[in-house]
């Protein structure tokens, strides 16, 4: 499938993971398939959650540029203070690197460098809010809960499109898209609040790569689900596209994080390009 997304984005940030047919007690532990679960961390302001991040290595955490102000990062059950260095912006994209004052003892995360591999089944991991108690399972929209429902969850979705040069809240970013559908399995997930900076992982050639970083959704406070592809009744989640920013003099690899592993594998049976235009109009919500 060849898809280029034509969209207009108002200024709205991203939130945490919800499911159409499962409650807040679903998918709270490592799925056990090798996905870098432990490297997904919670960004905090004082004692309050404010977003999600991905620990890359060498004390660096990647998160959305609009997540802040930050005072610490929660890794597992422990809070780690930030060091005194200023956050490092990644070009004009809605991303930044912050550095921990001490080493949390985690491994590194591979960054995708091949745009040809951007597409197909992916795992979402984030610290966003869940559904509200009043939101019935299997009904649309899924209403978001309050901050007491925010915790680490994983879900799945399908990357089906990309768009370049999207301007939101002073940032210009390349994005990947997933849709929230009601008929694609119990683990089908959408981003919610505090999911800004959440991870979008894909397994390629037996290895896990960070493909995207959670940034924006369509609606604030709820997620629409539909059985129809590209329906206005199906919410889209947008992720900063790692393959656009993983290499180069002004990119993530230029900072002293472990260099990303490269690969040139194509997803079998999936051709991902930018030739078919889909017009989508919505206010983009920031997930913080």
UniProtKB/TrEMBL annotation:
GO biological process: proteolysis
Domain Peptidase S1: 33-129
SUPFAM superfamilies in UniProt: Trypsin-like serine proteases (SSF50494)
GO MF annotations, alphabetized: serine-type endopeptidase activity
Protein name: Peptidase S1 domain-containing protein
């Amino acid at each position: 499938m060849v898809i280029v997304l034509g969209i207009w984005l108002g200024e709205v940030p991203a939130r945490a993971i919800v499911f159409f047919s499962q409650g807040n007690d679903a998918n709270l532990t490592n799925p056990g398939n090798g996905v870098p679960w432990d490297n997904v961390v919670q960004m905090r302001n004082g004692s309050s959650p404010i977003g999600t991040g991905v620990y890359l290595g060498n004390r660096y955490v990647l998160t959305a540029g609009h997540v802040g102000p930050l005072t610490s990062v929660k890794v597992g059950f422990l809070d780690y203070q930030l060091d005194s260095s200023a956050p490092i912006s990644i070009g004009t994209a809605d991303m930044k690197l912050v550095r921990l004052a001490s080493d949390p003892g985690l491994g590194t995360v591979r960054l995708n460098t091949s745009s040809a591999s951007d597409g197909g089944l992916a795992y979402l991991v984030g610290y966003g809010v869940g559904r509200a108690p009043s939101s019935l399972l299997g009904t649309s929209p899924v209403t978001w809960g309050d901050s007491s429902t925010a915790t680490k969850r994983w879900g799945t979705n399908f990357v089906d499109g990309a768009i370049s040069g999207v301007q939101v809240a002073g940032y210009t970013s390349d994005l990947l898209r997933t849709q929230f559908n009601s008929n694609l399995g119990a683990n089908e997930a959408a981003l919610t609040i505090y999911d800004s900076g959440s991870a979008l992982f894909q397994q390629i050639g037996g290895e896990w790569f960070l493909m995207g970083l959670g940034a924006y959704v369509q609606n604030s406070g709820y997620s629409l689900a539909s059985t129809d592809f590209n329906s206005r009744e199906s919410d889209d989640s947008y992720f900063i596209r790692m393959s656009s920013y993983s290499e180069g003099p002004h990119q993530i690899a230029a900072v002293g994080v472990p260099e990303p592993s490269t690969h040139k594998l194509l997803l079998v049976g999936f051709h991902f390009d930018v030739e078919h235009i889909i017009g989508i109009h919505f206010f983009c919500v920031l997930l913080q």
